[in-house]
Design brief:
This protein is an alpha/beta fold. It has 13 helices and 19 strands. The chain binds flavin-adenine dinucleotide and 2-acetamido-2-deoxy-beta-D-glucopyranose (4 copies). This is Flavin-containing superfamily amine oxidase-like protein.
C-alpha cells in the first residue's frame, strides 16, 4: 500500500520549460506546492551510487536538465572511504578499483580526480589462514596452478563475450551457464583459478553453489585481463569518495541528498514524484525517470509498480555483504587473517562469516568484510565479527582482544539473482523489455553486474535511448 498524503500528485504536466499544462484530475491541487517546491526536469534519477551519479553528470553535460535523488547524506553508494578523525588517514571500506578504459579515464578527468594503477598488494603483510568456524589455523590451504586455471577461465569466457555488456543472453540459455559454479569449475579445469576468482567474487553468496552465469558476470573478462596486465585503476590520492564529492559539487543544487521518494505517479505524460527532503516536501515533474537502486519490491514501495514489474522484481533475491573497521583487535598490524574452510573444496570458506580481517593501512585499525548467502540483521553480523576475533584467541591462533567498531556499513542487498528456471524462461529478456516503458529507465548492478566500470558503460549506452525520448 502506498501512502499518499492529501496534497499529492499533480496530474498536470509541467515541462522542463516550465509550461503549466491544464490539470486533468480534480483531486490534485497544484496550489499545495509553492513554485519553489516544484522541480521540473528532463530526467529525475533515483539513487546516487555509481550508476546514478554517472548518469546525472553525463546527462547534464549533454545539455539535459537533471535532478539526482539520494537517500543517504552523500553520493557514492558502495564507495565508502573511511577517514580517521584523529589524523585524516583514509582507507577504502567499499569499492577499491576500476578498469583501465577510456570511459573510466574520461569520467575521472571530467571530475578532475587523478588515477593511478593498483596491484592490490599491501607489502609487508603476512596472511594467517584460519577457519572462522573454529578460529584454528588451516594447515593445508588449497593452491593450484593459477595461470593454467585463469587461462582456462578466459577460454571459456570467450564463448560468452556478450556477458560483458549486460544480461543480453542467447536463448536457449547455454546449459553451462546454469550449472552450479562448483560443477563448472570441475568441468573446465578451473581449480587453479579459484583463489583468484574467489576474491573478485566477494559478495556473491555461496561461491560453489552460485549459478555460473552470476559468477561469470561478477568476475568478468575485463577483471582477469586487468589483473594480468596490472592495469586496475584507483585514485592517486587514495580517496575514492573524492569522485563522488566532485560529482556532487558539479551537480550542485541538482542533487538532493538525504531525500526520500514518497510516491511516484507514472500515469500521465510526465512522471510526478513526491519527495521528502531536508527542506520539506517537494514535487518533481520529470519527462523521464531513471532508477539506479536495487529493484527489489520492498525497495520500490514508493513506485506505482504494475503487475509485470512486480512479477519480475519479485523473483530477485540477494546475498548479504557487510564491512567494518575495528580497533583494539590485538592483531599485529602486519597480519591479515583470512577465512578458509579446513575441509571444503579449494578451501573455500563457509558462510556466513568474515572473508578476512586485515590491516586497514591505518595503524591499529583492521578492515573486515563479512558475507552471507541471504541478508542478516546488522546486530547479528556485528556479534559474529566480535566472536570471530575472539575465537582466534580461544583457538590459540592469535592473542586477540575484544574489538570496538569504529565503522560499520551494510552493503546489503548485494548481488541480486533469480533462480535458473527464471533465467531459462527469459527473465532477463523480460526485464530488459521494461526499459523505456512508462517513461522509466533502469540501471544499476541488477541490470548488469556489481562492477562500476561496467555499469558506467551500460549506463552510457542507455543515455541515447533516454535522450531520444526527450
Ligand atoms: C565492499 C565492496 C567492494 C567493491 N569493490 C568494487 C571495486 O573495487 N570495483 C568495482 O567496480 N565494484 C566494486 N564493488 C561493486 C559495486 O557494487 C559496484 O561497482 C557499484 O557500486 C554498483 O553501483 P550501483 O549504481 O548499482 O549501486 P550503488 O552504488 O549501491 O548505488 C545505489 C544508490 O542508491 C541509493 N538508494 C537505494 N535505495 C534508494 C531509495 N529508495 N531512494 C534513494 N536512494 C536510494 C543507495 O543509497 C546508493 O547510494 C564493490 C562492492 C562492495 C560492497
Ligand atoms: C601451470 O600450467 C601451465 C600450463 O598447463 C604449465 O606450463 C606450468 O608449468 C604449470 N605451472 C606449475 C607451477 O605447475
Ligand atoms: C543484444 O544482442 C543483440 C544481438 O547481438 C543486439 O542486436 C542487441 O542490440 C543487444 N541488446 C543489448 C541491450 O545490448
Ligand atoms: C599469547 O600470549 C601468551 C602469553 O604472553 C604467549 O605465551 C603465547 O605464545 C601467545 N600466543 C600467540 C598465538 O601469540
Ligand atoms: C575503539 O573504538 C571505540 C568506538 O569508536 C571507542 O569507544 C574505543 O574507545 C576505542 N578503543 C580503543 C582501545 O581505541
Amino acid at each position: 500500500m502506498r501512502i499518499l498524503p492529501s496534497i499529492v500528485l499533480l496530474w498536470a504536466c509541467i515541462s522542463a520549460a516550465a509550461t503549466v499544462l491544464p490539470e486533468r484530475d480534480s483531486k490534485i491541487n497544484i496550489a499545495d506546492f509553492q513554485p519553489k517546491d516544484i522541480i521540473s526536469r528532463d530526467v529525475c534519477i533515483i539513487g546516487g551510487g555509481a550508476s546514478g551519479t554517472y548518469a546525472a553528470i553525463r546527462l547534464q553535460d549533454l545539455g539535459k536538465s537533471v535532478v539526482l535523488l539520494e537517500r543517504k547524506p552523500k553520493l557514492g553508494g558502495h564507495t565508502e572511504t573511511y577517514t580517521d578523525p584523529a589524523n585524516g588517514a583514509m582507507t577504502e571500506t567499499g569499492l577499491v578499483a576500476w578498469y583501465d578504459s577510456d570511459l573510466v579515464k574520461n569520467f575521472f578527468e571530467r571530475l578532475n580526480v587523478p588515477l593511478t594503477t593498483t596491484s592490490f598488494v599491501s607489502s609487508g603483510v603476512t596472511t594467517l589462514p584460519v577457519d572462522f568456524r573454529t578460529g584454528k589455523v588451516v594447515a593445508n590451504v588449497f593452491s593450484g596452478n593459477a595461470s593454467e586455471g585463469l587461462t582456462n577461465y578466459v577460454t571459456q569466457y570467450q564463448k560468452y563475450t556478450y556477458l560483458e555488456d549486460g544480461f543480453n543472453l542467447t536463448y536457449p540459455v547455454p546449459a553451462d551457464l546454469l550449472l552450479p559454479f562448483g560443477d563448472y569449475i570441475k568441468k573446465y579445469n578451473l581449480a587453479g583459478a579459484v583463489p583468484t576468482l574467489y576474491i573478485f567474487a566477494n559478495g556473491i553468496g555461496e561461491f560453489l553453489k552460485q549459478t555460473t552465469l552470476y559468477a561469470l558476470k561478477l568476475v568478468n573478462l575485463a577483471t582477469v585481463l586487468n589483473l594480468e596486465a596490472g592495469s586496475f585503476q584507483t585514485t592517486l590520492r587514495h580517496d575514492n569518495s573524492a569522485l563522488y564529492e566532485s560529482a556532487a559539487s558539479v551537480l550542485s543544487s541538482n542533487v538532493l541528498l538525504s531525500s526520500n521518494v514518497i510516491a511516484v505517479d507514472r500515469s500521465g505524460e510526465c512522471v510526478k514524484l513526491l519527495i521528502a527532503t531536508s527542506e520539506g516536501l517537494k514535487c518533481i515533474i520529470a519527462k523521464k525517470i531513471l532508477l539506479s537502486i536495487p529493484p527489489l519490491v520492498e525497495n520500490l514501495g514508493f513506485l506505482d509498480l504494475d503487475a509485470t514489474e512486480k512479477a519480475l522484481f519479485g523473483q530477485f533475491s540477494s546475498a548479504g555483504y557487510y564491512v567494518a573497521i575495528l580497533n583494539n583487535t590485538g592483531i599485529p598490524d602486519n597480519i591479515e587473517v583470512r577465512n578458509f574452510g579446513a575441509d571444503t573444496p579449494y578451501s573455500v570458506p563457509v558462510l556466513p562469516g568474515p572473508y578476512f580481517i586485515q590491516p586497514s593501512g591505518i595503524p591499529g585499525l583492521f578492515s573486515v568484510k563479512y558475507a552471507s548467502q541471504t541478508p542478516m540483521p546488522d546486530e547479528v553480523v556485528k556479534a559474529d565479527i566480535v566472536s570471530a576475533v575472539l575465537k582466534l584467541r580461544s583457538a590459540g591462533s592469535l592473542n586477540t582482544t575484544t574489538p570496538g567498531f569504529v565503522f560499520y556499513s551494510t552493503h546489503t542487498p548485494f548481488e541480486l539473482t533469480v533462480p535458473i528456471d527464471a533465467i531459462e524462461g527469459g527473465f532477463y529478456r523480460n526485464l530488459y523489455a521494461l526499459q523505456g516503458l512508462k517513461n522509466t529507465f533502469w540501471t544499476g548492478a541488477a541490470w548488469h553486474a556489481q562492477d562500476s566500470s561496467k555499469l558506467w558503460a551500460f549506463t552510457e549506452k542507455l543515455l541515447g535511448e533516454i535522450i531520444a525520448g526527450l
